[in-house]
Design a protein that fits this description.
The protein is α/β, with parallel strands linked by helices. The chain is 27% helix and 21% strand. It contains 11 helices and 19 strands. It has helices at residues 17-25, 55-58, 63-68, 80-90, 126-136, 162-185, 200-203, 206-219, 287-290, 296-308, 327-343; strands spanning 27-31, 42-43, 46-47, 94-100, 140-146, 191-195, 224-225, 250-254, 270-274, 311-317, 350-351, 362-367, 373-377, 385-389, 394-401, 405-406, 410-413, 416-420, 430-438. A hairpin with a 5-residue loop joins strand 12 (362-367) and strand 13 (373-377). The radius of gyration is 23 Å and the shape is globular. The protein binds ligand FHN.
Length: 441
């Protein structure tokens, strides 16, 4: 063990009420919204086949022209209640929104920059409106904050000399002030989700990431912070040099999930975030993105996959430049929500079912309070039949599907059962609630 000043604050997962609440949510809505929603991946008539929020960099747009987009951010069709209604329809229990992305534009009227929503034609505090709308519906709000800032004159990717060190120290002070401001203006926020912390400059200042976590936890008791913020004394990220997770949950699963049989993941809290199109987080209007939208059942598969390993799933939405949500994304949210409305007992408050092995047709989950085990069948075999292998010594004593009630099954051997599931596929992946007992003898 190496002595660390800025390593992990604890070695075991948090068990306080706020953390348990976050852990039980399982399904969240991510939102990437900023100036990049206006060009939406297209510049001077050409589609730029890259994540829309990277447009200023990829298309090498002069800073002044990028900033001028703020004049067109009129919010002609923005309604915080409509966004929040969509989250409710999806069955999301929390929402995480970009307060500032890499281009430095802030969704709240920050006193520390003039590059913010308050200086757009409407002058509205959309962040405040969103917090109010989501919380009125019982949905927790978390703030995404990009430490990386392409616009700020003191931002540095690397620290080459004293002048860089001085400039970057000023930058860290600026970012700390913005974070204090967010905590003060919106004290009901439940979590902070940091991004853009991978550069050498941040890694060389692990102390600052420690201070940010400490400041937020002091001001906002219970607040949940992702691992991506943190670097330790030696520049190790997420997990400190001694192998302990920093922050409250691992947030490294981005557009990828752990292997479904990798049960080692279940020893920590974690969250995976996912785009609806193949890659873009901000709204991208081109076919590069729009022809790759995920099917609602693919989303359900990922939700169950994460739950089965004790993780949360954060599905990203990229609202459009006028403030409206893309209809295709609203439709996906609706269908995922319809599935969750029937089958949510296998997801919310559920986690890893220890002893129940991954078998390829989908996932086992277990309700962390009642102990009820579920099978979520997302890959039905061509036969239409699923073979359920129970842990040794257990037998099936009853089977129920949340939508339709008792379901028949056949015993093939001790602890091995077969279930026919061809009917009802149009309603999405089947869920089975398993009643079990000890095998006699
Ligand atoms: O560069 C960003 C990207 O735009 C997006 O915000 C994602 C979300 O996890 N994070 C970064 C890439 O890791």
């Amino acid at each position: 063990m190496i002595e660390l000043k800025y390593g992990a604050a604890r070695q075991e997962p948090r068990q306080d009420a706020a953390m348990q609440r976050f852990r039980g949510h399982r399904v969240g809505q991510f939102i990437h919204w900023g100036l990049y929603a206006l060009p939406a991946g297209r510049w001077e008539g050409k589609d730029v086949e890259f994540a829309a929020e990277f447009l200023p960099r990829v298309a090498k747009i002069p800073q002044q022209r990028w900033e001028a987009l703020a004049n067109d951010f009129t919010l002609a069709d923005f309604d915080a209640d409509r966004w929040a209604d969509t989250a409710v329809a999806m069955g999301a229990r929390y929402m995480t929104i970009t307060t500032k992305h890499h281009d430095g534009f802030c969704l709240w009227p920050s006193a520390h920059t003039d590059f913010h929503m308050g200086n757009t034609p409407s002058g509205r505090d959309v962040l405040g409106e969103l917090v109010a709308a989501y919380e009125a519906r019982g949905i927790d709000v978390n703030f995404y904050y990009s430490v990386l800032d392409w616009r700020h004159p003191d931002w540095r990717f690397t620290l080459e000399n004293d002048a860089d060190n001085l400039a970057f120290a000023r930058y860290l002070d600026f970012a700390m002030k913005q974070l204090e401001e967010l905590a003060e203006r919106y004290p009901s926020v439940k979590g902070f989700w940091f991004d853009g912390t991978w550069d050498e400059s941040v890694k060389a200042n692990g102390w600052w990431t420690w201070e940010v976590e400490r400041m937020l936890k002091k001001r906002l008791p219970g607040v949940v912070v992702n691992s991506r913020l943190r670097a330790d004394d030696l520049g190790a990220r997420h997990v400190d040099t001694n192998g302990h997770l920093m922050g409250d949950y691992e947030s490294g699963y981005e557009r990828r999930l752990p292997e479904p049989w990798d049960t080692s993941v279940a020893t920590r809290d974690w969250e995976a975030c996912m785009t609806i199109p193949q890659a873009s987080w901000g709204y991208h209007q081109g076919p590069w993105a729009q022809s790759t939208l995920k099917h609602p059942w693919d989303v359900v598969d990922m939700i169950a996959h994460c739950t089965s390993l004790g993780g949360n799933f954060l599905l990203n939405f990229g609202p459009r430049g006028d403030g409206s949500l893309a209809p295709a994304e609203v439709e996906i949210a609706r269908r995922v929500g319809e599935w969750l409305a029937v089958n949510g007992e296998a997801i919310y408050g559920c986690g890893f079912a220890e002893g129940w092995e991954y078998q390829g047709w989908g996932y086992f989950t277990r309700d962390t309070s009642s102990g009820q085990v579920f099978a979520v069948v997302t890959r039905l075999p061509a036969s239409g039949r699923v073979r359920l292998q129970l842990p040794a010594g257990l037998e099936l004593t009853g089977l129920r599907t949340p939508g339709t009630g008792a379901h028949p099954y056949n015993r093939l051997a001790d602890s091995v059962f077969e279930v026919e599931l061809r009917a009802g596929l149009e309603a999405g992946p089947a869920v089975l609630a398993l009643e079990t007992g000890l095998l006699a003898g």
